[in-house]
Amino acid sequence: MAEEKYGIIEETSEKEEDHMISETLKQNLNDQMNYEFYSANAYLATAAYCSAEGLDGFANFFLVQAEEERYHAMKFYHFLNDMGERVMVEGSTAPNNSFSSVLDCFEKSLLQEKEVTKRIYHLADIALDEREHATMTFLNWFINEQVEEEALFDNLIQKLNRIDQDSNAFIMMDQELAKRSFTPED
């Protein structure tokens, strides 16, 4: 349907008039929300491994990561609600509970973050293709967050590769990570 706005005639679709997002985008946003909940559980499982190994600082690091992922999931929840869309919470598969070392925990976590990045980029591509500006603005926060997350894990993996697990440096790293806390960002 043609609509005149500011002297310019534009074609608008039903979607634009209602400002509803497409079914494809809605499903992918819901899927990502559920994947963020899955990621929170994956970090909880990683924290449990670290706790069992007596590494409370590393466990704290992963507990904070789990809290961040739950926060991210809730951002998707609130965005979908704000857009007038139905949130669909689904069950998830059990996360990995097998780790061979702290380094293994961080390497698997980096792979997890890279998967999140890939999924966020896919969402951004859909939103861009559909000219869904509100969703693009929303996703920009996650794009920036993923750059930070991957850099954080890369940095910690580099440090872990340089130190012996029985060294004072490893103990100091564990103590340093014990100080980390969750602070929601907007």
UniProtKB/TrEMBL annotation:
InterPro entries: Ferritin, Ferritin-like, Ferritin-like_diiron, Ferritin-like_SF, Ferritin_DPS_dom, Ferritin_prok. One of its GO terms (biological process) is intracellular iron ion homeostasis. It holds the Pfam family Ferritin. Residues 19-164 form the Ferritin-like diiron domain. It is found in: Cytoplasm. Its EC number is 1.16.3.2. The keyword Metal-binding applies. One of its GO terms (cellular component) is cytosol. Its main location: cytoplasm. Gene3D superfamilies: 1.20.1260.10. Fe cation binds at residues 36, 69, 72, 113, 146. The keyword Cell inner membrane does not apply. Keywords: Cytoplasm, Iron, Iron storage, Metal-binding, Oxidoreductase. It is an enzyme of class 1 (oxidoreductase). It catalyses: 4 Fe(2+) + O2 + 6 H2O = 4 iron(III) oxide-hydroxide + 12 H(+). One of its GO terms (molecular function) is ferroxidase activity. Iron-storage protein. Belongs to the ferritin family. Prokaryotic subfamily. This is Ferritin. It comes from Sinobaca qinghaiensis. The lineage of its organism: Bacteria, Bacillati, Bacillota, Bacilli, Bacillales.
